[in-house]
Amino acid sequence: MKIDKIECKKLEMPYTKPLVTATNNFTVARGLLVTVTTNGGVEGYGYADLFSRSGETPETAAHVIETVLKAKALGRELEDLGSIRAQMDHALTGHPRAKSTLEGALYDALARSYHMPLSVLLGGKCRSEIKVIKMVSVGDPEAMAAEAKALADEGLALKLKVSGRIDKDLPRVAAVRKAVGDDVFIKIDANEAYDAKTAIRLAKALADLGVEVFEQPVPRDQFDALWEVKKHSPIKIEADQSCRNFADAQVLIKNRMIDSINTGIPKVGSIGEVRRIAELCEANGIRCALSNTAGSVVGDAAALHLAASTPGISPLCELGEFEVITGDPFFGLAVTNGTLSVPEGEGLGVNLRGF
Hints:
The structure is a single chain. By secondary structure, the protein is an alpha/beta fold. The protein is 39% helix and 23% strand. Strands 4, 5, 6, 7, 8, 9, 10, 11, 13 and 14 form a 10-stranded mixed sheet that branches. It has a 3-stranded antiparallel sheet with strand order 1-2-3. Strands 12-15 form a two-stranded antiparallel sheet. Helix 1 crosses helix 3, helix 7 runs parallel beside helix 8 and helix 9 runs parallel beside helix 11. The longest helix has 18 residues. It is globular.
């Protein structure tokens, strides 16, 4: 089938409760929805969350799709997706979230045109569900503990956002651990807010609280600082913003700067790039997990199909944040007993409301 139409639509979906991190205060999930329509009437959908700190916005993503990327796909056969993607990269450097949005819609349309789930198109499932980690916003220790307890009671693992102030963050984590007990998985995410020496101090204190992972303790480009934290930390150190592509992953892994990598399709720009990173991690004994900020279930469905069909991706991922927003025009995913099950319908397996 030929690609007949490509349309962009900005989505704004309010949070039910603000998500506060060391670098952001999210009250509305802003993203871009791309719809690809074939000459046979098949539609495919792609979505990425877009915010200024990611380097892209809904406006910039829509602009580059309309003015540069669309021309590489219109009139082409869906089956030429690999060639289309290569031409997109040749025509435009950077803009991973814009590229991933269009590519996601093409993948969805291709899988739908063959009447199969995306996970089958990607090679078949190695698992049917993913255990979910949910984020807890920066706040007062008591509020964070109450939120964490409610999530843990639903069978969810926890990711605590912290502020970059050790005197404030340690009481937050301690309150959460006391509230949820010793058996609940906890990681913390500093979103680049610490310097190396303070991060090491915090990591040593976190070990006593049973925290398993410390995500992105230092600014993204400070690889030497990240290595220093890893060298002296008694708990696992994870890269997020420091791993923007496969080349970053190579440097991080070759130099043993991290214990794990937290990535995602919009972050690195394509399903293929995530798979390359996951395979590199698997070959080197490094954990690789996927994450997503709150947005349409379209984005989470793509990540879920990818995680289900890629052995090197952890069965424990940070998905399901679509539950904390309202106004999503799509449905078809739900977190149940702390897990997300892979949809069995065609393509992404999610549907536009009203259809």
